Amino acid sequence: MWLLIARFILRNKAFILIFLGILTAFMGYESTKVQMSYEYANMLPKDDTVYLQYEQFKAKFGVEANVFLIAFQDSNFFEAQKINDFKAITQQIKGDSGIAGILSLPDLYYMAKDTTKKQFQLLSLFPDTIVSQEILDSLKTVALNQLFYKDILYNDTANVFAVAITFDKKVVDSKKRIDLVNQIKHDFDLFGKKYHITPHYSGLPYIRTAVSEKIKHDMQFFIILALLITLLILYLFFRSFRILFIAIIVVGISVIWVLGTMALFDYKITILTAMLPPLLIVIGIPNIIYLLNHYFDEIRHHGNKIKSLHRTIYKTGNAIFLTNLTTASGFGTFIITNSQVLQEFGLVALINIIGLFFLSISIIPIFYSFFALPKKKHIKHLESKSSSWFLAYLTYLITTKRTIIYITVGIIGLLAFWGISKIQVVGYMVDDIPHDDEIYVDLKFFEQYFKGALPLEIMVDTKKKKGLFRLKNIKRIDKLQTALEELPALSRPISYVELVKYAKQSYYNGNPRKYAIPSKMEKNFILSYASKAHDSGNRIKTFIDSNKQCARISIQMADIGTHKMGNLIGQVQSKLDTIFPPEKYTTMVTGMSVVFEKGMRYLIKNLITSVLLAIAIIALFMSLLFGSFRMVVISLIPNMIPLLLTAGMMGFWGIPLKPSTILVFSIAFGIAVDDTIHFLSRYRLELKQSEWDIGVAVHNALDHVGISMLHTSIILFFGFIIFTLSGFDGIVYLGLLVSITLFIAMLANLIILPSLLLSFEHYITTKAFAEPMLSIFNEDEDVDFDDL
Questions:
Q1: What share of the chain is helix, strand, coil (3-state, %, to 5)?
Q2: Which of 157-166, 168-177, 277-286 has the lowest mean pLDDT?
Q3: For residue 111, pLDDT beyond 60
Q4: Paired strand residues for 550
């Protein structure tokens, strides 16, 4: 087959280049349509119980996780000019389209009793302009006595004040959210600069906006950096600007194809898909190295350009195709995860890695058919003294020191298993944000003074219409809220019961000592006042459903990690079951925090499955390639060892097992096995030509593909290590761990694999290669090279 492919490529050069040009132009046009993702990435399948409960909650109470939080610490906040400037900002924000509401002390509405109409009136506490400090001081006392807002809008013991800006649900998942967040942040930054205070920002709209901006920056930065690093190393190896030109064309087209594929599938750029353009640059370079090194080796032997190109395609095409297929499989296994983000990442990667193979196998031979023969300096790297010495030393080791090699590997393996026993499985809502980043620092500020900024929701169904206003149910919910305040990771709960308490306080002319559940005698006339209040329905409907049967209890929580979060949710549910007997009430713990916790666990489970599937698929490829179970085992051992060592290092270094680090194993395994395929393919060819002398075959295989293995491993190491410069810890870990894994895999394939072949030569030779599927080149093949 590869003989026909080689002929087709070299005989139809113009047609192939025109076709690739048209296809690339089309994909380039499509790539202009690709957009950033501004939505929350759901990690749960739509039939999952937690997901269904969350959707049920939103159907009753509307969208949550749409509040942008701003806070600052200022012991002199209540100064007339400062409050006036503050109100000018918030009034401007209120006028912006896309803003559903804003809460802060200077914008406070309080309930005042109207004895004539026997109802509460909602009045603005602060006028638009404060004319004197004396007036402000009196208003400050009234504001701080509104206990409904205590520990929500202010922490009076620490002089910390907060602003809660609610985004319209249509804006929170759109690009407009970014402009709004940036404008609001700009205004408050200027305010802070003027009065020498530091605003802190949090809430999911802000976190998602900041993360999407970082993703956009990272993608642009790493495309440029990956291209520069790989081109620099290529030049150091080959000393040829011609090769750099071809490399730019191949990887440049692959980047266009990646973005075009995302647009065609209507996928948006996420933290994962943003990695694909630079990843394709890094992954594409090994194809170029293997093709060019083989081409130069052919030129060195006989000097016939067309014959060299034909043999390069014929002799390396199958191996390069299989290496790209295994790499694509490592990514493609993410398709089974039922996570939309990972499915998109896996599918786009799989398609474009295969596309990268067809680009490499066609463009490089076609371009070199037009170029003059390479000069001696371009082939010089194949005779590098340092590389030759290194490969000769490896040959010495595997020939004479195999026992020491196996003992060393055994000791390292035991250490790896010890490290694996230390690995923890945990994830955080802002897991990928470095701890010195503004997002993380500000989140911890909210956790310190308001116990968190991440939403947790509780729903209580009394199973009876108007059941919420029965005094016993009001008391039950108050008892629950008191119990929840004992949990240090949770903020003060807010529900309609707090509004009932606030109504009692307002009925008694704002006396803070009356902020409590009304007695049986007080309940009816206080609630009758509240029911007539202007806008009372709008305020209370966010906490109760239309039938007054289901109550919402809103809490902010700290980002404590999935392990602790699971225990916390269990504690909350236990308190619910104790206070609200399940036979009489239906309760649920939900909200974005719960969805995230369940989603992370679900994702980790699926990613572990995808790693095992990647190993199984690649093992199947190896069995089809070599037709021997023994050879499959021998070929997998050098590639499993790096995965075990990487997992061990994660345990020793305290790197937790989470989605971003589990990705390492599928990606690294899919790439690492490439060296195995190249080595064993050449080994089998040498085995036949040496009349089944395994020692000679191993030596010759190392001599022919060892340099390419070294070169590609160096490229891959530096290509992935650049991701340690990312603004996301998960990407940093991914880059670091994949780099280390691939470097260890190179050593394993250069040392352990040949050692195993020599040690078990009597068990594998005849069975493994009796009917090889990989075509071995026939040096006497009759090809009319002039016709090509």
A1: 70, 10, 25
A2: 168-177
A3: yes
A4: 461
Listed residue (491, 454, 403, 477) closest to 208, CA to CA? 454
Residue partners of 78: CB distance under 8 A and separation at least 6: 136, 137, 140
Tokens linked to 709 = 């293995």
Region for 239 from its dihedrals, namely left if φ exceeds 0, alpha if ψ lies in -120 to 50, beta otherwise: left
3-state secondary structure of 30: helix
Q: What is the pLDDT of residue 550?
A: 92
Task: Name the 3-class secondary structure at 104.
Answer: coil
Residues paired with residue 219 on neighbouring β-strands, in sequence order? none
- C-beta atoms surrounding 488 within 10 Å: 9
User: First-to-last CA distance in the chain?
Assistant: 17
**H or E segment at 391?**
helix 385-400
Bridge partners (DSSP) of residue 586 are 461
704 token code pair? 């022919």
Nearest to 202 by CA among 426, 450, 431: 450
The predicted pLDDT at position 354 comes to 92
Q: Which element (helix H / strand E) includes 69?
A: strand 67-73
Query: Are 347 and 333 in contact, with CB atoms under 8 Å apart?
Result: no
User: Greater confidence, 323 or 356?
Assistant: 356
Instruction: Centre a 10 Å sphere on the Cβ of residue 435 and count the other Cβ atoms it contains.
Output: 9
pLDDT at site 377? 61
Query: Is the model's pLDDT at 42 over the cut of 70?
Result: no
Token pair, residue 721, equals: 């290590």
In whole angstroms, give the CA distance from residue 435 to residue 635. Answer: 41
Spatial separation of the C-alpha atoms in residues 691 and 685, rounded to whole Å: 10
* pTM score, whole prediction: 0.74
Lookup: tokens for 329: 């499989």
Q: What is the per-residue pLDDT for 778?
A: 44
- Cα atoms in the Cβ-side hemisphere of radius 13 Å centred on 652: 11
Domains in the chain and their CATH numbers?
Answer: 2-39+209-421+597-768 (1.20.1640.10)
β pairing state of 160-167 and 454-461: unpaired
Tens of pLDDT, residue by residue over 716-747, are: 888 888 888 887 777 888 888 888 888 888 88
Are the beta carbons of 372 and 357 closer than 8 angstroms?
no
At CA 130, angle to CA 128 and CA 131, rounded to 5?
130
Question: Which residues 6+ apart lie within 8 Å of 138 measured at CB?
Answer: none
**Torsion sign (Cα): 263, 269, 272, 275:** positive
For residue 726, give Cα distances in angstroms to 66, 217, 221, 235, 663.
27, 10, 9, 25, 16
Q: With contact defined as beta carbons under 8 Å apart, do 642 and 741 qualify?
A: yes
Rounded Cα distance between 418 and 152, Å, is 46
Q: What single string gives the DSSP state of each residue in 632-695? A: HHHHHHHHHHHHHHHHHHHHHHT--B-HHHHHHHHHHHHHHHHHHHHHHHHHHHHHHHTTS-HH
